[in-house]
Amino acid sequence: MEIVFLNRFEQAVGRAEPERGQVFIGEHQGIWSAGWHPIPEQGPDNQEIWYEGTSWEELLASFRHGVAGKMKVGFRPLLDGMLEDSPFWERRQQLASVLQCYADHHGSEEKVAPLRQWRRAKATEEKRSAYLIATNRELQLVAVFVPRTPEELAQLPGFGKTKLEKYGAELLELVSSLPREHEFPLQWVENAVSEEQLEEWLFLQKEEKYGKSVSLVQEKKKLLTGIRQGSSLADLEQELGLSRRMLVERIDRLDEEGYDVLPIVDQELASVAEGEIEQAEIAMKELGDRYLKPLYQRLYSSEAAGGGQAEQHYERLRMIRIRYRRKRTTAAV
Question: What is d(CA 141, CA 157) in angstroms, rounded to the nearest whole number?
Answer without folding.
Answer: 8
